[in-house]
Amino acid sequence: MMDMLDAIGHGFSCIEIEWGRKGSLWLPSAFHKRPARAFTMPQNDLDSIRLNRGGVGGEELWDMGWIVHKHKSKSGPVAQSGLFRVLVWTYLFKNLSARDWAQFLNLYGLPFRIGKYDASMTDRERLNLLRGIRMLAREGGGIIPSNAEISLVSPSAGQSAPFLDMVSWCEKVQSKVILGGTLTSQADGKSSTNALGNVHNEIRHDLLVGDAWMSAETLTQQLLWPVLAINGRFNPERAPYLEFDARESVDLERLMTVVSTAQQAGFDITADWVSEKSGIPLPQEGQTIPETAGPPAGW
Fold first, then answer.
1. In whole angstroms, what is the distance from residue 62 CA to residue 83 CA?
2. How far is residue 40 from each of residues 14, 33, 85, 195, measured CA to CA in Å?
3. C-alpha span between 95 and 167 (Å, rounded)
4. Where is this region: Disordered (predicted)?
5. Which end of the chain has fewer surrounding CB within 10 Å, N or C?
6. Angle separating helix axes 161-179 and 194-219, nearest 10 degrees
7. 210 and 218 in contact (C-beta within 8 Å)?
C-alpha cells in the first residue's frame, strides 16, 4: 500500500509482481516497486505507461505482471496529475528561504565589519586590511595598516521576519494541497476555532475516502482478479471486489441517545442503519449474544 500511494505524488506508481506456486495455486510471492524514472509515456498517448527501454515509445508492460496505480490529483496527462507538480515551487521557495534564514542566523546580532581604505593604498595594503577584518571576526582582534579604518555597523532588528513569513506561507500552501486545509496540521491562534477545524477535518476525510476508493479499484482489477484468473476461478458475473472501510468513528453514546429519542417520537429505525452508523456488526447465526444487563438492585 505504501508503494502504491507513491502515486499521490508522482501521478502513478508501478509495482512488478513476482509470481510463485503455493501448492496447486499461483500466488504473488513478492512485489517490487520500480522508480518512476524507469518508465516513459509515448508522445501519441500520454496516459500510457511503458518501460523506458526498447525504443523511443518504450516497451509495453506485460499483462498480470504489474500493478499500475494511477492517482489523479488533478486533470491532465498521468505524468502531470501528481501533487509533486503543484508542490515543487513551494518546496523550492521554502528550502531557499530556510537556507537564507540559516545564513542570517549565523550572523544574527553580530555587527557588520566594514573596512575603509585610502585611494592611495596599494593592493598589498588593501589585502592586509581584509585579513585584519577577518581576524577581527574570528579572533576578536587583528592588525591593519595605520592609514586604514574599520567601522562596526549594527544591523537593524526584525530582519528575520521575511524568512519566517515565506516558510510559513509555503507550509500553509502545502497543507492545503495535501490535506485540503491548514487547521488539521497547524494552528495560528487567529482562525483556530473548533467549527473551522471540523470543516477542515471533513475535507481531509473526503480526500481519504477518494484515496481509498482509487486504491481499492486498482487492487481489485490488477491483483485480486488476476489471482483468480490465473488459477481458473474468475467468474465475471460473481467477481469479488475490495473495499476499504473509511468510515470515521462516531460518538456511540450520542448516537444511542438520538436513536432512542427518534424511536420515542415514532420513527422506525432499522438495525441495519444503526449497525452501519455505529460500526457494530449484526450478529450472525451461531454467534453468542451477551445478555442485556438489568437495572441495578433496588430499582
1. 28
2. 12, 16, 17, 46
3. 8
4. 279-299
5. C
6. 50
7. no
- Please give the single-letter amino acid code of residue 60: E
In Å, what is the CA distance from 279 to each residue of 212, 219, 250, 272, 275? 18, 24, 8, 10, 5
Q: pLDDT 10s per residue in the chain (299 long)?
A: 888 988 888 889 999 999 999 988 999 999 999 998 899 988 888 888 899 887 777 888 988 999 999 988 888 888 888 888 888 888 898 888 888 877 777 666 566 677 777 777 788 887 877 787 777 666 666 666 666 666 666 666 556 677 788 888 888 888 888 877 666 555 555 655 555 556 667 777 888 888 889 999 999 999 999 999 999 888 888 889 998 888 777 778 888 898 899 888 988 888 888 888 887 888 887 777 777 655 555 55
Which residue has cell 482509487?
A: 214
Evaluate whether 26 touches 231 at the Cβ level (below 8 Å): yes
Helix axes 84-107, 161-179, angle to 10 degrees: 160
With beta carbons less than 8 A apart as the criterion, state whether 175 and 182 touch: yes
The SS3 of residue 50 is strand
For residue 169 the three cell numbers come to 506561507
Q: What is the pTM of this model?
A: 0.65
DSSP structural state of residue 223: I
DSSP one-letter code for 147: T
Strands, E assignment, the chain: 12-22, 25-34, 39-40, 50-51, 66-70, 112-116, 149-153
Which amino acid would we find at residue 129?
L
133: nearest Cα among 148, 150, 118, 119: 150
Q: What cell was used for 129?
A: 586590511
